[in-house]
């Protein structure tokens, strides 16, 4: 066999696991839970799923952390269809992240949401990693943005007792991301054409389930632009 021919050889077809056989699918319990949930919802409101299938008209775009303890809809007790959601590690809004920018553009221009909520949380592992000098692999390139937030606010953070520093960095990160949302061309253009959209910065306490408004809401472009 010539060198290189091996890479062109046909790979065996992936083995398909049976999904319908009871006791075989290790995720069967999730399908069971899904079915039970769908039945409960439909029993309570038979029009719920047909209505949602026709369209979504959420008023809120939620930008939150991917942390499993911070499920957007549950925190604010809203059913499907009421939140347009983007989540990533550290609830970051990065100016070159086409994924996040596309969500913001779709939410603002197509769905015409009225509020963009950046919701961080105390105890955020992503934020904690910025305070540590430890390698995490590929994710370090993403977490770098959190180290930037720390650098921007170094003076304030160094003046705090270490126990408070972590919590404050979680808050400062939310504030930074609110600024980043407001500075996107999407938001600036929306405000320029008179759209009434407010960007909010919230933080969620995983210790008691409560959300706090950080008081950094914006309903107009930052001036001067920076
Ligand atoms: Zn987090």
Give an overview in words.
It contains nine helices and five strands, in the order ααβαβαβαααααββ. The chain has 226 residues and is of the alpha/beta class. It has two domains: 27-55, no CATH class; 57-213, 3-Layer(aba) Sandwich (Beta-carbonic Anhydrase, Chain A). A hairpin with a 4-residue loop joins β4 and β5 (210-213).
Helix and strand layout, with pairings?
Elements: H1 28-44, H2 48-54, E1 60-65, H3 72-75, E2 83-88, H4 98-110, E3 115-121, H5 125-131, H6 139-152, H7 154-158, H8 162-182, H9 185-192, E4 198-205, E5 210-213
Parallel strand pairs: 1-2, 1-3, 3-4
Antiparallel strand pairs: 4-5
Helix pairs in contact: 5-6
Bound molecules: zinc ion.
Outline of the structure:
This protein is 42% helix and 14% strand. The protein has helices at 28-44, 48-54, 72-75, 98-110, 125-131, 139-152, 154-158, 162-182, 185-192, and strands spanning 60-65, 83-88, 115-121, 198-205, 210-213.
């Amino acid at each position: 066999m010539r060198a290189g021919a091996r890479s062109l050889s046909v790979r065996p077809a992936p083995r398909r696991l049976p999904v319908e056989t009871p006791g075989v699918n290790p995720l069967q319990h999730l399908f069971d839970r899904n079915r039970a949930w769908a039945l409960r919802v439909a029993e309570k409101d038979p029009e719920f799923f047909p209505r949602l299938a026709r369209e979504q008209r959420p008023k809120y775009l939620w930008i939150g952390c991917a942390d499993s303890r911070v499920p957007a809809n549950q925190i604010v007790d809203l059913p499907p269809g009421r939140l347009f959601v983007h989540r990533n590690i550290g609830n970051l809004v990065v100016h070159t992240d086409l994924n996040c920018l596309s969500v913001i553009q779709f939410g603002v221009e197509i769905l015409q949401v009225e509020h963009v909520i950046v919701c961080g949380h105390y105890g955020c592992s992503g934020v904690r990693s910025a305070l540590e000098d430890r390698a995490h692999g590929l994710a370090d390139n993403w977490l770098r943005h959190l180290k930037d937030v720390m650098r921007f606010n170094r003076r304030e953070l160094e003046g705090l007792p270490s126990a408070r520093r972590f919590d404050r960095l979680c808050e400062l990160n939310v504030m930074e991301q609110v600024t980043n949302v407001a500075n996107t061309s999407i938001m600036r253009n929306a405000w320029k054409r008179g759209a009434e959209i407010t960007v909010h910065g919230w933080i969620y306490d995983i210790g008691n389930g409560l959300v706090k408004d950080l008081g950094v809401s914006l309903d107009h472009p930052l001036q001067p632009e920076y």
